[in-house]
């Protein structure tokens, strides 16, 4: 594909877009794993949403 | 299932979980189609192949504004109706909208350098989009600085609504002022003025980007709900710890 | 004496008496403007060209730094709770405090402008133009700054956040204030066009700022 004399700029633009989009996906995924890990730890310690006082 | 049922965070989480794979697949498919059309799009007679940057730049711009508009509606939900998911929706949208605004600015600069000879110029459109980006950063900072989520939500809601004045300024800046940035050619009275071979890839990419926003946003909202649960549990744990005065 | 008048006079007295009011604002204004030639270079024509912009930026920063204390001090000693609980509408109380703030901070900046114009090699006409734009612009800055001050009232380290939130909103005021000043000095645009828009911005910020700040205070103090 001939991108003409300004090919570098076009490639750079698409590269930045890919980086940003991948970055967003990674952020959402990592955040999700972190929250689920926290919840698992808390449940393991016996803290649940309907619990009264811990024994 | 009525729309109002979505107000329950747990219901939302289960719905989001079910819908997520579909959203991802549709988004991916749209990007494949969009990129294929972008690849095949003809060169512009003036701009050559650099018009291909437009297929990223314009959807990013639209989504940057869409993000703030979404936050504004959520802000009304928080302040007027106290809708429980409005806070979550607003907070989740901010980083995504900021990212697309950033992408708009960067791709715009990369397009401007070969076309206008400069990466940046202080005309009305670029300046107001930069202000939008700074406002995004400000509202994200506000979310992170106020500890209590409900109070943070209300403060962010007020700031969001005040900042919403920027959206019509961005949209009409190329009409009101003499700018280097080109005037509106898609969303204007009289319909789009772009040739279909360029308009169709643009619209497909815009749709792909929008679905991407929605997918990310729904996932981020889920994360935010989980984050609040973690916080609530940790508070409960701290309150009932031995020796804490309970 | 009505509660509003009492609040107004109290704020003015506090600003004059304690060191945080008009005196310090003007001093900061002076220092910032004096710093500029050290950074830009002493060339007089360049300073005259940049003069209105520098004066405007100095006024903007000076306003911003004094806004921090507008609600925070009352919050710390509990008076903000009393104001919120009183019968006087919160919007009017906020307006009274804003008026007192402008009189003790914004107005001294305006009065100091001719002297500082000398440092920037501005002639009488230029100084007068900048003074007039600041006269209309500093209230706008106060009202916009109200919003940030109210949003960050309960935060302990809210100072920089306040600036981050407020500065993007003040950009239109800055643009038209400097544009009006330059129009009067250099032309060809008539002074009236940007100046009228500046006045409109001031009136808009008056309404939006007061209502948004009151709403933010209510939310922040719940």
List keywords for this structure.
heterotrimer; A: mainly alpha; 0% strand; B: 76% helix; globular
Task: Describe this protein's structure.
The complex is a heterotrimer of chains A (55), B (246) and C (222). Helix content of chain A is 69%, strand content 0%. Chain A is mainly alpha-helical. Chain B is globular, with a radius of gyration of 21 Å. Chain B has one domain. Chain B is mostly helical and 246 residues long. Chain B starts with 8 loop residues before the first helix and ends in a 7-residue tail after the last helix. Chain B is 76% helix and 0% strand. The longest helix of chain B has 44 residues, at 196-239. By secondary structure, chain C is mainly alpha-helical. Chain C has one domain (3-221). Helices cover 86% and strands 0% of the residues of chain C. Chain C has eight helices and no strands. Chains in contact: A-B, B-C. The A-B interface holds A 1-7, 9-10, 12-14, 16-17, 20-21, 23-25, 27-28, 31-32, 35-36, 38-39, 42, 45, 47-49, 51, 53-54 and B 39, 43, 48-50, 52-53, 56-57, 60, 95-96, 99-100, 102-103, 106-107, 110-111, 113-114, 212, 216, 219-220, 222-223, 226-227, 229-230, 232-234, 236-237, 240-241, 246.
Topology:
The complex is a heterotrimer of chains A (55), B (246) and C (222).
Chain A: H1 7-44
Chain B: H1 9-40, H2 51-81, H3 84-116, H4 124-145, H5 149-163, H6 166-176, H7 196-239
Helix pairs in contact in B: 1-7, 2-3, 2-4, 2-5, 2-7, 3-4, 3-5, 3-7, 4-5, 4-6
Chain C: H1 3-17, H2 22-40, H3 44-77, H4 79-85, H5 90-119, H6 124-151, H7 159-185, H8 192-221
Helix pairs in contact in C: 1-5, 2-3, 2-5, 3-5, 3-6, 3-7, 5-6, 5-8, 6-7, 6-8, 7-8
């Amino acid at each position: 594909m001939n991108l003409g004399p300004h090919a570098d700029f076009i490639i750079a633009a698409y590269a930045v877009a890919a980086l940003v989009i991948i970055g967003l996906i990674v952020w959402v995924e990592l955040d999700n794993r972190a929250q689920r890990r926290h919840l698992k730890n808390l449940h393991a310690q016996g803290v649940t949403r309907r619990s009264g006082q811990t024994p | 299932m009525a729309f109002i049922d979505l107000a329950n965070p747990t219901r939302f989480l289960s719905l989001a979980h079910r819908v997520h794979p579909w959203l991802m697949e549709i988004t991916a498919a749209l990007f494949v189609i969009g990129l294929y059309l972008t690849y095949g799009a003809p060169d512009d007679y003036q701009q050559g192949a650099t018009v291909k940057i437009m297929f990223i730049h314009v959807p990013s711009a639209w989504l940057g504004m869409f993000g703030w508009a979404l936050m504004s509606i959520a802000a009304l939900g928080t302040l007027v109706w106290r809708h429980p998911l409005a806070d979550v929706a607003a907070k989740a949208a901010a980083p995504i909208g900021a990212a697309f605004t950033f992408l708009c600015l960067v791709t715009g600069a990369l397009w401007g350098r070969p076309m206008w000879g400069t990466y940046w110029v202080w005309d009305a459109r670029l300046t107001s989009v930069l202000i939008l980006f700074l406002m995004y950063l400000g509202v994200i900072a506000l979310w992170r600085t106020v500890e209590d989520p409900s109070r943070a939500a209300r403060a962010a809601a007020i700031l969001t609504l005040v900042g919403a004045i920027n959206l019509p300024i961005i949209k009409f800046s190329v009409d009101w002022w003499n700018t280097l940035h080109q005037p509106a050619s898609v969303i204007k009275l009289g319909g789009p003025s772009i040739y279909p071979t360029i308009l169709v890839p643009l619209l497909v990419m815009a749709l792909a980007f929008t679905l991407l926003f929605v997918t990310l946003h729904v996932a981020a909202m889920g994360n935010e709900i989980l984050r609040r649960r973690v916080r609530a549990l940790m508070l409960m744990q701290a309150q009932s710890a031995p020796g804490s005065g309970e | 004496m009505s509660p509003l008048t009492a609040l107004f006079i109290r704020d003015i007295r506090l600003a004059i008496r304690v060191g945080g009011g008009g005196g310090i604002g003007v001093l900061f204004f002076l220092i910032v403007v004096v710093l500029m030639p050290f950074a830009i270079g002493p060339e007089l024509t360049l300073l005259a060209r940049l003069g209105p912009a520098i004066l405007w930026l100095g006024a903007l920063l000076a306003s911003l730094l004094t806004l921090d204390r507008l609600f925070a001090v009352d919050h710390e000693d509990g008076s903000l709770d009393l104001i919120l609980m009183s019968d006087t509408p919160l919007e009017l109380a906020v307006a009274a405090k804003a008026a007192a703030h402008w009189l003790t901070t914004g107005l001294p900046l305006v009065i100091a402008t001719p002297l500082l114009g000398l440092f920037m090699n501005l002639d009488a006409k230029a100084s007068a133009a900048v003074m007039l734009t600041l006269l209309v612009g500093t209230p706008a800055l106060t009202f916009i700054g109200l919003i940030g001050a109210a949003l960050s009232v309960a935060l302990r380290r809210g100072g920089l956040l306040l600036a981050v939130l407020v500065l993007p909103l003040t950009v239109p005021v800055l643009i038209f204030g400097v544009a009006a000043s330059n129009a009067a000095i250099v032309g060809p645009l008539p002074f009236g066009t940007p100046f009228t828009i500046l006045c409109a911005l001031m009136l808009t910020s008056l309404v939006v700022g007061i209502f948004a700040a009151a709403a933010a205070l209510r939310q922040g103090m719940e």
